[in-house]
Amino acid sequence: MNTGKLVRLNRIFSHPSGRLCSVAVDHFIVYGEGLPDGLRRIKETIGALVEARPDAVTMNIGIASSVWPSYAGLVPLILQGSLMRPDDSAMELAATPEDAMRMGADAFAVVGFVRGASEAKYMRTIADCVREAARFEMPVICHMYPRDFTGGGHNVSFHTEISYRPEDVAWAARCAVEVGADVVKVPYCGDVKSYAQIVADCPVRLVAAGGPKTRDLVEALAMMANVVKSGAAGATIGRNIWGTEKITLTTRAFKAVVHDGMAPAEAARSVGL
């Protein structure tokens, strides 16, 4: 690994714990119609996030251009390049590694959905991004999700869900590694022992996706505590932070679990939640 890429990765993984506790607000295209309040009020959300100083924030290029300048340099920026949905109704790139370099980002993120007939297309897109990113010493973080095709085989005309089966999550992680990702983000499979094996088998840093919206904060923090137990290099959280009313305090609670090893209930109390 050359110096430029190492400098950028070290900014993202700067905490003494060696783990990442970052936040993503790049979910727009996934929702199709409508916007949750945390994404609709994006200026207020980003301001609340920066106040809590997460290790990085992942966002799309338009938000990075219009909202992020007020906070440039305060928190590492990860630029999301993908406009993709698990049912393949969107399979596009809205930004490139060169855009990430131009905007001062510390990493470029790209999404891939595996299992199913379009699996190789996603892998090719990621490989192309890795190749371009190498020109700029820009780390590539691959958000890789395995799919579960309900109703028959791997036909994307059926309803598509994200799979949390350990064998599928392991497959997703390996697919990202095979095409050159520097950091792999995959869902937590729900079992510490199984996830620990996935982490152990991954030759690059593996971080967990924050997962679907949980019933309450303690449940979300408990999942993060299990991610830490597995040996993963941290997590990127989305709706379980920006989907709450107290974004700053919630971010701090996640940091207490991921970085300080606090128990979930203790972490919530420590920030006043």
Entry summary:
With 273 residues, the protein is α/β, with parallel strands linked by helices. 43% of the residues lie in helices and 20% in strands.
Task: Note the main attributes of this structure.
alpha/beta; 273 residues; TIM Barrel; globular; 11 strands
Q: How would you characterize this protein structure?
A:
Helix 10 (217-229) packs parallel to helix 12 (247-260), helix 10 (217-229) packs across helix 13 (264-270) and helix 12 (247-260) crosses helix 13 (264-270). It is globular, with a radius of gyration of 17 Å. The chain has 13 helices and 11 strands. With 273 residues, it is α/β, with parallel strands linked by helices. Residues 152-158 have low confidence and may be disordered. 43% of the residues lie in helices and 20% in strands. The longest helix has 16 residues, at 119-134. It has helices at 3-12, 28-31, 37-40, 42-52, 61-66, 97-102, 119-134, 166-178, 192-201, 217-229, 239-242, 247-260, 264-270, and strands at 20-24, 57-60, 77-80, 82-84, 91-93, 107-114, 140-149, 160-162, 183-187, 205-209, 234-237. The N and C termini lie far apart (41 Å). The protein has an 8-stranded parallel barrel, surrounded by 5 helices. It has a single domain (3-208), classed as TIM Barrel, CATH 3.20.20.70.
